[in-house]
Specification:
The complex is a heterodimer of chains A (360) and B (337).
Chain A: H1 3-11, H2 18-41, H3 49-56, H4 64-99, H5 111-129, H6 139-164, H7 169-192, H8 196-207, H9 215-233, H10 236-242, H11 246-251, H12 256-278, H13 284-296, H14 301-323, H15 334-353, H16 356-359
Helix pairs in contact in A: 2-4, 2-14, 4-9, 4-12, 4-13, 4-14, 5-6, 5-7, 5-8, 6-7, 6-12, 9-12, 13-14, 13-15, 14-15
Chain B: E1 5-18, E2 21-34, E3 38-42, H1 49-56, E4 64-69, E5 72-73, H2 79-85, E6 86-89, H3 101-106, H4 121-133, H5 149-162, E7 167-171, H6 179-195, E8 199-203, H7 207-213, E9 216-220, E10 226-229, H8 231-236, H9 239-244, E11 249-252, E12 257-260, E13 266-271, H10 274-286, E14 289-291, E15 300-305, E16 308-313, E17 316-320, H11 323-332
Parallel strand pairs in B: 3-8, 3-9, 6-7, 7-8, 13-14, 13-15
Antiparallel strand pairs in B: 1-2, 1-4, 4-5, 9-10, 11-12, 15-16, 16-17
The chains are: A mainly alpha (360), B alpha/beta (337).
């Protein structure tokens, strides 16, 4: 065959930079480990690594209160941050691929606004009428918020997915956007008629917080996130094909409509779960996939999915660490920090890349 | 050579169904595509060429009729199996950020790879063969977004080739390309069809190239019929004129091309031969003159010889030593008077 002569010259050149990729994965993983460890050690009270290990191993000589801080507060918060970041990074990547739009984030289908409506109804409508969750932070109140928020997200998702079956992908994007605006308007009206202290608790929810997931709630949170990520991993290959558009994807044997449905469902479940338990966390979902593409210089999902998981987790744990302001007496709004970290990351990647076309 | 039909359509009606509303683009089509045959699909804009290609590719259900791929109903074949038999090159742009040409071509291996999408040695060999077959080997490591239209089209075709399908459907792959690139692409496709025994259907507006390269032509008419035949046969029996000609466009069977005909009001007599005569005649036609035949009254006459034009008008003779100055002179005269 004629092609053989040319074959050998190129084979070496087209071998993908798998070594570079592996090194990067290790580096990001290591960074994640370091930040997570720091995050458990430092805070309003500082602990040494030894103390943390002793607390984890259940050593008797540990101060009971300190042990409680480490095991029941710091650790679940770091795990929550890690899982949320991984979930949002993955969901963002899936949305960007399915919509072929670099601005798509995990919430394009409106799960965030759905959740906020659920929470607004609980905090602003039911709360004042007399249900006993005045503090909104006691155990049952927190669970109610999670239910309201997840329920709102699920209801919105259901409506959008139902509508999206009969239209093309661009219209799905716009339908999601319009539903978000509509729900946002309803929330505004609820806020307009609410008392100041009620508003404050709603605003606090909208800042986002990883500190609300106890070990008991983790039993629901962690499996939902891990399940969603596992579901996404099943679609690595069809997602690659979807980069060419639905028609081309079909032509290489992908059941594009089915894949689209399951990927949208998986991504929204991931995003909705995070919003349900932690409030709306912005920016990570856009930043993590962009940064992953930039770092790994590829569009293959078998690289980008694990990369977005790790990068998302790293950004998320770092943002949480900064927001808790170790050594300071304030806790900053998590959402402000994710945006402060996320936006420059996107800008830097774009400027360095010069053209969005190359990123997407 | 094997001439068994890859794809056969019987009484096929194509179009769109929106709820209860049906738009039929073409009906009662009977056609087939055979291995080793390069077929060009021609037709005016809006005749339904893309619809036909999408229907034949199984991306759009036919309104009625029978569509069989190697004897099996097309819609009964699983997507993956169909992808091994039919590949496409579509008009829609391929987004391709962070994707080099090699990765893009490797997507053509999806019908063969496992769920993880990893490439075997055989996959790699086939990808490199596909890149080589269209002369895109040097592009392998370039980002697709940075390629020129012509280069991207080659990579697109390589991606389809990597699919190892015996039937390839291409929707206007030569649009946006300059003439040399179009000729190159057509000859690559033609030789591929023969060498690999592929059945190739390509829609194009490029009548001239289709006439030169295609084994068979399919002409789609605006009233939804499909006229088939060898290019030369269609040219001889005037089918082209019927499909394409309009009030101010003439099919010229002698040159195999179309000609505009703003009704000439003045005739010119032309003598002489050679290339100079051919191009002088073209210039005159472009400027709105007819070529006089015996007995016509003439506005002026031209004697053409190598490098010299002798123009006679009202008994006066003017000499031009290049065609440009001749054209300048003709354009400078007010002929309406």
């Amino acid at each position: 065959m004629k092609a053989h002569s040319a074959l050998f010259t190129v084979t070496t050149a087209t071998n993908k930079p798998s070594n570079r990729g592996l090194g990067l994965f290790l580096l990001i993983g290591l960074g994640l480990l370091v930040v997570a460890t720091l995050s458990v050690c430092l805070g309003s009270v500082h602990f040494s690594l030894g103390e943390v290990l002793r607390a984890l191993l259940g050593s008797e000589e540990m101060n009971g209160v300190h042990r409680q801080i480490i095991v029941d507060f710091r650790l679940p918060q770091v795990v929550t941050a890690l899982l949320s970041g991984a979930a949002l990074g993955t969901a963002g990547l899936l949305m960007q691929t399915v919509f072929r739009n670099p601005l798509a984030d995990p919430f394009v289908l409106g799960v965030n606004s759905g959740a906020s409506l659920g929470v607004a109804i609980v905090l602003l409508v039911i709360g004042p009428v007399g249900l006993s969750l005045t503090d909104g932070l006691d155990g049952s109140g927190q669970m109610l918020l999670i239910l309201a928020s997840s329920g709102g997200a699920a209801a919105t998702l259901f409506v959008v997915l139902l509508l999206s079956r009969r239209v093309d992908i661009m219209s799905v994007l716009i339908i999601g956007l319009m539903i978000s605006y509509t729900i946002g308007a309803l929330v505004s009206i609820l806020m307009f008629f609410s008392m100041a202290e009620r508003l404050q608790s709603f605003i606090n929810w909208s800042f986002g917080d990883y500190g609300n997931v106890s070990w008991a709630q983790m039993q629901f949170f962690a499996p939902a996130i891990l399940g969603g990520i596992a579901l996404s991993c099943l679609f690595m290959k069809p997602l690659d094909a979807l980069l060419l558009g639905e028609r081309y994807a079909q032509s290489v044997g992908t059941r594009a409509k089915q894949v689209r449905f399951f990927v949208l469902l998986g991504a929204s479940l991931l995003a909705g779960t995070v919003t349900g338990f932690c409030g709306p966390i912005g920016f990570l979902g856009i930043a993590a996939p962009h940064l992953s593409r930039y770092l790994f210089q590829t569009s293959q999902h078998r690289v980008l999915i694990p990369a977005s998981i790790l990068v998302g987790a790293l950004l998320s744990v770092s943002a949480d660490f900064v927001a808790r302001g170790p050594g300071l007496d304030v806790v900053l709004p998590l959402n402000a920090i994710t945006a402060l970290i996320g936006a420059p990351v996107i800008i830097a990647a774009l400027v360095k890349q010069r053209k969005l076309k190359r990123l997407f | 050579m094997a001439t068994k039909a890859q794809l056969t359509a019987k009484q096929l009606s194509i179009g769109y169904q929106h709820g209860a509303e049906t738009t039929t683009v073409a009906r009662a089509l009977d056609c087939s595509l055979r291995g080793g045959e390069f077929v060009c699909l021609l037709g005016p804009n809006g005749a339904g060429k893309s619809t036909l290609i999408r229907t034949l590719a199984g991306m759009q259900p036919p309104l009625s009729g029978e569509l069989t791929l190697r004897g099996k109903a097309l819609n009964a074949i699983a997507p993956r199996e169909r992808a091994r038999a039919v590949s496409v090159v579509l008009t829609e742009t391929m987004p391709s950020g962070m994707m080099d040409a090699y990765s893009m071509v490797s997507l053509g291996r999806h019908p063969y790879s496992g769920w993880f999408g990893g490439l075997s040695a055989e996959d790699r060999e086939r990808i490199e063969w596909a890149l080589g077959a269209v002369g895109a080997m040097p592009l392998a490591n370039r980002q697709v977004a940075e390629l020129s239209d012509g280069e991207r089209q080659k990579v697109s075709i390589a991606r389809a080739l990597a699919q190892e399908a015996k039937l390839m459907l291409l929707d206007e792959p030569t649009a946006f390309l300059d003439l040399p690139r179009r000729v190159e692409l057509m000859s690559i496709l033609r030789s591929l069809a023969q060498r690999e025994n592929l059945a190739l259907l390509l829609s194009t507006h490029d009548l001239d190239l289709a006439l030169r390269f295609a084994d068979r032509l399919w002409l789609m008419t605006t009233d939804g019929r499909l006229i088939q035949g060898a290019p030369e046969a269609l040219a001889l029996d005037g089918q082209f004129a019927e499909v394409f000609a309009s009030e101010n466009l003439d099919w010229d069977a002698a040159t195999g091309s179309f000609r505009t005909h703003p009704v000439p009001c003045l005739n010119v007599q032309i003598e002489g031969g050679g290339l100079e005569r051919v191009w002088t005649q073209r210039a005159l036609e472009r400027l709105g003159f007819g070529i006089a035949t015996e007995g016509d009254t003439v506005a002026f006459s031209i004697k053409v010889s190598a490098g010299a034009w002798e123009l006679e008008r009202f008994g006066l003779i003017q000499l031009f030593d290049n065609i440009e100055s001749l054209i300048e002179w003709i354009r400078g005269v007010d002929w309406r008077g």
